[in-house]
Amino acid sequence: MEQKKVVMDAEGIDRSLTRIAYEILEKNKGVEELVLVGIRTRGVFLAERLRRKISGIEGKEVPLGILDITLYRDDLQTSHRKPRLGKTDIPFSLDGKKVVLVDDVLFTGRTIRAAMDCLIDFGRPKRIQLAVLIDRGHRELPIRADFVGKNLPSSLWEAVSVTLTEKDGMDEVVIEEHP
Amino acid sequence: MTLLLKDGRVVDPSRKADGTGDLLIENGKIAGSGGELRQTGKGREKKVPHGMEVLDLRGKIVVPGLIDMHTHLREPGFEYRETIASGSEAAVAGGFTSIACMPNTNPVNDNRSVTEFIRRKAAECGLANVYPIAAISLKSEGAFLSEFWDLKDAGAIGFSDDGRSVMNAALMRRALEYASSLDMPVIAHCEDRNLSAGGMMHEGFVSTEIGLPGIPAIAEEVMVARDILLAEYTGAHLHIAHVSTAGAVRLIREAKARGVRVTAETAPHYFTLTDEAVRTFDTATKVYPPLRGLEDRDAVREGLRDGTIDVIASDHAPHARTDKEVEFDYATSGITGLETSLALSLGLVEEGLLTLPELIEKMTVNAARILRIPKGTLADGADADVTIIDPQREWTVDRALFRSRGKNTPFHNWTLKGKAVLTIVGGEIRCRDC
Amino acid sequence: MKLNRKDILGIQELSVEEINLILETADSFIEVSTREIKKVPTLRGKTVINLFYEASTRTRTSFEIAAKRLSADTINISAATSSVVKGETLIDTAKNLEAMNPDIIVIRHSAAGAPHMLAGILRQSVINAGDGAHEHPTQALLDMMTIRAKKGGIAGLKVAIVGDIAHSRVARSNIHGLTKMGAQVSVSGPATMIPRGIEKMGVVVHMSIEEAIRDADIIMMLRIQTERETQNIFPSLREYAQYFSLNRKNIGLARKDVLIMHPGPINRGVEISSDLADGPHSIILDQVTNGVAVRMALLYLLTGGTS
């Protein structure tokens, strides 16, 4: 039997992002040298939303980059399906920048490991921070998020899925149990 | 040894005979055939004479020993591809009691000593009758005639520069003239080597698509036309080997209608396969002439049907693995044919293109007449060369089981119907349940 | 989606979906080559062998760069330095290489079908980098990628391929690819350079370059091989240049936004005039750039995701 539970609705997501935007500004003392880098696919949309919110608060545009970490994954040889390769687009130098990586769900930490490897190939950021909408635990690497929308303790048999209007037509975070 | 072949369907085109009956073999000769033998062997009260083997051949076909007038036995010189012994084994396994072998050995069979060597070797292994075909020109280089008279005395039964077309028309003319005074056929490998130069396969849509250099049909046809004109002019007997194109069939048909002394043969792969088979780049499909287009294949079949093509010969061309397990460009040309020829040819009967007697005629008496050898008949007193065919036997071609050293066949793993089950040469069983 | 094949031997057997997958993947790889650090760890620990039995600078270098940018180890073997000179057969060479456990073997050979022979016996993926006059799939893929990037698509475009079609693997692969993708392809050259029955591949044959390039969106000029002169494929380079070169005079027949392509190496002043080769319509160097991306895409798609 499959159970489906909505753990965050559109308003909840928006409120979390607003809070994260403030936290980013507070921690980095403004937008000086600040850049956002979204991890494909949903991290990009979340990064775009954060950029709009930051711009609304500070009145300044923060540069936004897009990262496809496929080429840095450690499971290419073993995964059953190969993710379709997307474009990476970081049209600015990362040297000396304060980078905020943005992703939807933080789980094992492997995606973030790959993203950091990739970022470092692009330059030498002053610091890298991590913003995620959901932290569901079960880390396999020593990685933690700096900004978290919601901590969602989950079991390994559960699937946490984030849907976003830009891609999926609606904003929602759902937790499902697979029998 | 005395053999009584009982109740088989005896098909002997040399006597226009086709009917169920018996065949008696005594002292290496045909001692009698027909319904009356039925009585001698039938009644339980009649004792089988001592030392007589009686074979019940109900459901089997009894035909004159098959003749393959175009083979390559590779000896002397290329024993790693085939020997006279292994080729003879392959022959009797395939149902052939007599084979003619082409002179492109090393040294070339252009002199008495090579001809005698081949005959001696064949006699030593004592399986099939082996008839050497000698070279038209010294070393088959197309420059000077070899000693036809001497070669005939030594046992050669025809002349051919097979594998190396005679490009010099004057030499071909002299060869035809000289051979006619000996009443011997000249067997022409028709290929204009300028037109075929560099070619790997039939020139057509497939070669265009897969980018292998082509050998145009006209490379064969201009030479067939030339040789027919030379035969017409000299009055000599021209036999055209391995006809593969529609144009060649047409030219031969027209020449025969005009009364030119021309005969022709084709090989099973030309009426079975087309250039489509080359798409896989399987070097087993590399052969000369090349596998042609569909319209050519159909024309060859029509030529067989209407009698334009007199003979089916396998052009048995064994090659070693090292010759074939290379890039298509570098692979040698040729298909091992002796052990698949009969079954592929029986397919023509199965399809209704030929009657069984028509097919057997093309695999026995027609070749015997072209080569002027006393074979291909079950008439009383003839040498007891007999092939027994099981027309219903289905079998799968496994090149590993070939007696021939050449495993180069495009028919590997094909399931075929019909097989020689007993091959009798000079009254002796040379292959049983082959 | 993933590429469900062990080998890339030709365009003929690729479906439109597969071609699209390769081209889209290649588009994503363009960016890697523009980075400061032009390297991703994707194929770390993989070994790519470039087995070249025919001289090649561009294609071999392109494969090598592609593999290296994906962090694969690459080995180049050319006929001159290999055991070929000692008479070893291709199969033996390949089996020996296989025994050293590479992951991908890229082969170029003057004999059509040589890559197919290897693909049949080797565990490893085989990529055809050109076999005789048969196929040159990576060239056609990079050509299609370049056309797509410049024109936004391939369907409906008028493409003229001019030169020695009969002896060109580039022409064959492009004809397969472009017709599959919906382009209208015409070919042109003296009759000695037009193989029999080529129309059945879905192209229109023109006897003059002028007819072929009229209103063309793309003109693909083929390199004329000078050794064909001795085979009487054409009488002289001089005459060929006069009647079949692309030049300032006849280029006006094509569309104003025509793009000029050439697989290289160019015979300047023979099949194409220097000013056109270097001019604003020429995308010859874009082809070279995209070649690296296409080959990265193939290496990427052929490795991994198989277990």
List the helices and strands and how they pair.
The complex is a heterotrimer of chains A (179), B (434) and C (307).
Chain A: E1 3-8, H1 10-28, E2 34-39, H2 42-58, E3 64-67, E4 98-106, H3 110-122, E5 127-135, E6 147-151, E7 158-163, H4 165-168, E8 172-177
Parallel strand pairs in A: 2-3, 2-4, 4-5, 5-6
Antiparallel strand pairs in A: 1-8, 7-8
Helix pairs in contact in A: 1-2
Chain B: E1 2-12, E2 17-26, E3 29-34, H1 36-42, E4 52-56, E5 61-64, E6 66-71, H2 84-93, E7 96-101, H3 112-125, E8 129-132, H4 148-154, E9 159-160, H5 169-181, E10 186-188, H6 193-196, E11 201-202, H7 205-210, E12 214-215, H8 217-234, E13 238-240, H9 246-258, E14 262-266, H10 268-272, H11 294-306, E15 311-312, H12 321-324, H13 341-350, H14 356-363, H15 365-371, E16 386-396, E17 415-425, E18 428-432
Parallel strand pairs in B: 1-4, 1-5, 6-7, 7-8, 9-10, 10-13, 11-12, 13-14, 14-15
Antiparallel strand pairs in B: 1-2, 2-3, 5-16, 16-17, 17-18
Chain C: H1 16-30, E1 47-52, H2 58-69, E2 73-78, H3 90-98, E3 104-109, H4 114-121, E4 125-131, H5 137-151, E5 158-162, H6 169-180, E6 184-188, E7 203-206, H7 209-213, E8 218-221, H8 237-244, E9 259-261, H9 274-278, H10 284-302
Parallel strand pairs in C: 1-2, 1-3, 3-4, 5-6, 5-8, 6-7, 8-9
Helix pairs in contact in C: 1-5, 1-10, 2-10, 3-4, 5-6, 5-10
Describe the structure.
The complex is a heterotrimer of chains A (179), B (434) and C (307). Chain A is an alpha/beta fold. Chain A contains 4 helices and 8 strands. Chain A has helices at residues 10-28, 42-58, 110-122, 165-168; strands at residues 3-8, 34-39, 64-67, 98-106, 127-135, 147-151, 158-163, 172-177. In chain A, the strands form 2 sheets. A 5-stranded parallel β-sheet of chain A has the order 3-2-4-5-6. A 3-stranded antiparallel β-sheet of chain A has the order 1-8-7. In chain A, helix 2 (42-58) links the parallel strand 2 (34-39) and strand 3. The mean pLDDT of chain A is 92. In chain B, 32% of the residues lie in helices and 23% in strands. Chain B has helices at residues 36-42, 84-93, 112-125, 148-154, 169-181, 193-196, 205-210, 217-234, 246-258, 268-272, 294-306, 321-324, 341-350, 356-363, 365-371; strands at 2-12, 17-26, 29-34, 52-56, 61-64, 66-71, 96-101, 129-132, 159-160, 186-188, 201-202, 214-215, 238-240, 262-266, 311-312, 386-396, 415-425, 428-432. In chain B, helix 8 (217-234) runs parallel beside helix 9. The model of chain B is unreliable at 38-46 (pLDDT under 50). Chain C is of the alpha/beta class. Helices cover 35% and strands 15% of the residues of chain C. In chain C, the strands form 2 sheets. In chain C, strands 7-6-5-8-9 form a 5-stranded parallel β-sheet. A 4-stranded parallel β-sheet of chain C has the order 2-1-3-4, with helices on both faces. In chain C, helix 1 (16-30) crosses helix 10 (284-302) and helix 5 crosses helix 6 (169-180). The longest helix of chain C has 19 residues, at 284-302. Chain C is globular and about 55 Å long. The model of chain C has no long low-confidence stretch (mean pLDDT 93). The interface between A and C is medium-sized, with 22 and 25 residues.
